[in-house]
Amino acid sequence: MLKRIMLSATVLASALCSTWAQADTEWKQKFEQLDHLLPTPNTYRTASGAPGKDYWQQQADYKMKISLDDETQLLTGEETITYYNNSPDPLNYLWVQLDQNMRADDSNTPLVEAKEYKDELTVKDYYNLAGTPDYDGGFKIKWVKDANGAPMTYRINKTMMRVELDKPLQPGEKTSFGIAWSFYVNDRMKLGGRSGFEYFPEDDNRLYTIAQFFPRMAVYSDNEGWQNKQFLGRGEFALSFGSYEVAITVPEDFMVASTGTLQNPKDVLTKTQRDRLEKARNTFDKPVMIVTEEEAIKNEKSRAKGRKTWVFQADSIRDFAFAASRKFIWDAMAVDINGKKPMAMSYYGKEGNPLWEDYSTRVVAQTLETYSKYTIDYPYSKAISVHSASIGMEYPMICFNYGRPDKNGEYSDKTKYGMIGVIIHEVGHNFFPMIINSDERQWTWMDEGLNTFVQYLTEQDFEVTFGEEFPHRRGPADKIVPYMSGEKGLFRPIMTNSEQILQFGNNAYAKPATALNILREVVMGPELFDYAFKEYSKRWAFKNPSPADFFRTMEDASAVDLDWFWRGWFYSTDNVDVNVADVTWYRMDVESEGVEQKVAEEESISKNRNEINDVPKKLDFSPLTKDSYREFRNRFDQESIKAEMADKNYYKATFKNEGGLVMPLILEWTYEDGSREIEKLPAEIWKLNEQEVTKLFIKDKKVVSLKYDPFNETADVEISNNTFPRVETPSRFEKFKKQTE
């Protein structure tokens, strides 16, 4: 398809890399339907956005034995994978993800990193550039065997492994095979990463947060086939649901927090710990200490010689992670979710107190309550928050979170609310994408953006529950303005693959969250939005939704045509900038020889078009002809109608769309007597002219000013042109800069 491209030198490089979505949208009418951009509905995924009658998805069950050596930081494992082919297609081979291989010597990750470096390098920059000769990263695959123990042929391609089958796996069949592997756990504080260990030299202990630690089945789906996009470090994970039985062997003085339900508590917990845990199962008002700080400090000094095996089991999950250390304090409480009683838990070292003991588990509980309200009831037995520095990462039932006070226990509001925000966010990921299982490798916004939006709703509930005002970072419309004010060539549409996003946090987290908040508060209203959003969550819980499924469901469940909204917010880099360009006052032309009428006829509209004219222009009504009456039986009494309207004030207002993104017009009229009125026009006001609209308003009172977006609800990037007559107002971006300075 031929496209016209207009480029400036400063944005050439970025524009050449722009996604097809942006180029396509640039030349389309803003109210054109999205049909040609969305996949054709079929019996797997319907036009309503619901799963179709023939919808299917694969299943992968795992049985694992894991061993962690604290002396060498070596993790070894064996697993049996049972793979169910629920698709209509025969499969000649299986693809397995080897995400740890992003740290292998032949990884593409450091080769594709291209960014500007300052004159001084950080240690992490150095490691990324020079490599880490003292660290042997990546999976070491010992063997791959079939269910009978016979070796299987496999081929490793970076972070993907193809396992050959003796014969095609037919629809409805299943197969089992085993893999043995090992890898050295990375020092996360030196090398970074989503998992690894943190070393505490003061007490010579490590706190392990372990994920992506086992070879995992890649997704085979109806809309993508095999998801075999390499893991380069940013695009997260596409995974299938299944059941897990995992045995984790660690030093016997370690505590283990994990996905799944503990199967052997008598083998690994003391009677006191088991009694405290049982008490916590029915305690809803505050956490119960399972392992106290005093006990944890005593334990971190121990060096037991033996080892313990913790066994966990879980169903209908898409991944597995765990944390292990002898440093852990552990507290827990129950959460009432419509009669169910999942547990909220936290594991943290003494370095997290007093902040973590005061807040973490209570915030986990609040998160489960709010997310369950807006999506589906939380289905799992527990949700865990684990404390570890400089991280926020999520897995089913468990997440790893930062937020550390100073050594003397003091902390700033920034540290406190940063910790609370990341706990809400990472626990919230249990819903997006751990249950509502979008493809993170392709579409970051479908988990990060939707999750950040519900995080904002949870932060508002936190304010009510805890009686504290929360400093929201993402969600409110005005917070996205500095980003949306930027040069369009320097950022990309939301509908961009994870690895190609510029300004990742703003694009994948903040902008979609803000868009959904605006959709809820400004476009649809909370009642319609909440119903549709919950319907999407129910339809796609434990399934694999695509962007089209979300877009279509939100319209299907609300009867609101939102194609213009998705096109503007998700497929383009337009912003909101509505210019209240002109307001002219009119009065009815009543025959009179008085001075006022003569002035009204002779006075120009206004000498200064930044002001509403002091003297009204006359408004003429052309007489109705006979043909104008058409089917009406009785003729209008034109004179009596004109008499009724003689005392009305008429205001012709012109609005210009300077930013390109069409939005409803939220207007605030200020009257001569000091009173105010809010009026809202739907976005379709722009349907015939997307650049400029003029509308006549009839008011009983005389207007002194008209303002667009009076409550900062639309993310308008330039407020200096929002009011007529003009007032001296700094731009929102300048206000933001002043606040941050």
Automatic annotation (TrEMBL):
Cleavable signal peptide: 1-23
Q: Which residues form the Peptidase M1 membrane alanine aminopeptidase domain?
A: 363-569
Gene Ontology molecular-function annotations: metalloaminopeptidase activity; peptide binding; zinc ion binding
Q: Which domain of life is it from?
A: Bacteria
Q: Name one GO cellular component term.
A: extracellular space
Q: Which is one Pfam family of this protein?
A: Peptidase_M1
Q: What are the alphabetically sorted keywords of the record?
A: Signal
* Transmembrane domains' residue ranges: none
What GO biological process terms does the UniProt entry carry, in alphabetical order? peptide catabolic process
- Protein known as: Peptidase M1 membrane alanine aminopeptidase domain-containing protein
